[in-house]
């Protein structure tokens, strides 16, 4: 099914409506003490990091099975590392954008604020966020295939492909969760606990199709959180979100930030539970 964009239907009224939605959202956020954010590749798109599933997405140009599975690594570790070396090079040249920066600033504005990200680019931390759960790992970390030691490795480009462990000489692999692998159970447990105790959850720049991350907003909603989605496109989450802000993270998050600051300090009593009248 093809959905029309709100901007196409509403034309000039769209901007005014965005402001109105931002003000409503600032009301919800302003009263909240515990906020959690789930981010995906879309939040880094405006920094110049390609997403996975869009028209220019990485999985349109490369086959995930040959690059991001344990079998692919076993078959051809050099090929897998060449791809990661290219991505590391690309990421090393980009900067966090306004969306990352707003989230970093918001960490100081709420009693509890965490970013759960599916991204491996490290841009949330680079923007200043400290409470970040990197569900899919970190492209700047390597793991020894023999001893499982995890180390930071910032070399870009890599001198030797595939790189080997400085201690034991075994192959190093990217410390990233590949297709067919499980997420760190402790980290996932923390993510679910955060979602289960948050009053507001923002879901920014993810296609909401990759599990288990895609389940997190449902867990938060089940526990009573207000779910706000920010994305230029509708996703499988959109019909379930309490508020859908259609647009780019680098534009919508600063808009919300301005609305939140214009509103002044919140009452701290938690967000209003009456839900916005329209869904999606
Ligand atoms: P996707 O590439 O699947 O989705 C990116 C989402 O970002 C889409 O819904 C876009 O509409 C949206 N988007 C694009 N530009 C945006 C912008 N400027 N602002 C906000 N949103 C924007 O990426 P993820 O959902 O993150 O896993 O993908 C999840 C996982 O699938 C990734 O972590 C990766 C991939 O395979 C691993 O590598 C393990």
Question: Topology of this protein?
Answer:
Layout: H1 6-10, H2 13-30, E1 34-39, H3 42-45, H4 58-61, H5 64-67, H6 70-75, H7 77-92, H8 98-106, E2 112-117, H9 123-127, E3 132-134, E4 137-144, E5 150-152, E6 172-176, H10 185-197, E7 200-204, H11 216-222, E8 226-231, E9 243-246, H12 249-263
Parallel strand pairs: 1-2, 1-7, 2-3, 7-8, 8-9
Antiparallel strand pairs: 4-5, 4-6
2'-O-acetyl adenosine-5-diphosphoribose (OAD) binds at residues 40-43, 45-46, 51-54, 57, 68, 118, 136, 177, 205-207, 210, 231-233, 235, 248-250.
Structure commentary:
- The protein is α/β, with parallel strands linked by helices.
- The chain folds into two domains: 1-49 and 96-136 and 183-280, Rossmann fold, CATH 3.40.50; 50-93 and 137-176, SIR2/SIRT2 'Small Domain' (2-Layer Sandwich), CATH 3.30.1600.10.
- Helices cover 38% and strands 16% of the residues.
- It contains twelve helices and nine strands.
- It has helices at 6-10, 13-30, 42-45, 58-61, 64-67, 70-75, 77-92, 98-106, 123-127, 185-197, 216-222, 249-263; strands at residues 34-39, 112-117, 132-134, 137-144, 150-152, 172-176, 200-204, 226-231, 243-246.
- Helix 8 (98-106) packs parallel to helix 12 (249-263).
- The longest helix is centred in the first third of the chain and has 18 residues, at 13-30.
- The chain is elongated and about 55 Å long.
- The model is unreliable at 1-7 and 268-280 (pLDDT under 50).
- It binds 2'-O-acetyl adenosine-5-diphosphoribose (OAD).
- 2'-O-acetyl adenosine-5-diphosphoribose binds at residues 40-43, 45-46, 51-54, 57, 68, 118, 136, 177, 205-207, 210, 231-233, 235, 248-250.
């Amino acid at each position: 099914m093809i959905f029309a964009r709100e901007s196409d239907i509403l034309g000039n009224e769209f901007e005014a409506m965005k402001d109105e939605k931002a003000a409503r959202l600032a009301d919800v956020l302003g009263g909240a003490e515990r906020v959690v954010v789930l981010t995906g590749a879309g939040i880094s798109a405006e920094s110049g990091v390609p997403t996975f599933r869009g028209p220019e997405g990485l999985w349109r140009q490369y086959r995930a099975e040959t690059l991001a599975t344990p079998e692919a690594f076993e078959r051809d570790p050099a090929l897998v590392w060449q791809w990661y070396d290219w991505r590391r090079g690309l990421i090393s040249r980009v900067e966090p954008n306004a969306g990352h920066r707003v989230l970093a600033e918001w960490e100081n504005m709420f009693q509890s604020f965490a970013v759960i990200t599916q991204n491996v680019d490290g841009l949330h931390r680079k923007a200043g966020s400290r409470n970040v759960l990197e569900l899919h790992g970190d492209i700047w970390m390597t793991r020894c295939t023999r001893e499982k030691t995890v180390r930071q490795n910032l070399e870009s480009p890599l001198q030797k492909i595939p790189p080997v462990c400085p201690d034991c000489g075994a192959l190093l692999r990217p410390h990233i969760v590949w297709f067919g692998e499980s997420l760190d159970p402790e980290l996932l447990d923390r993510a679910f606990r955060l979602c289960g105790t948050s009053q507001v959850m923002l879901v920014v720049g993810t296609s909401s199709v990759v599990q288990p991350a895609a389940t997190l907003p449902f867990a938060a909603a089940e526990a009573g959180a207000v779910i706000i989605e920010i994305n230029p496109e509708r996703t499988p989450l959109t019909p379930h979100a309490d508020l859908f802000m259609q647009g780019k993270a680098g534009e919508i998050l600063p808009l919300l930030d301005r609305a939140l600051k214009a509103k002044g300090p919140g009452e701290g009593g938690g967000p209003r539970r009456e839900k916005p009248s329209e869904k999606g």
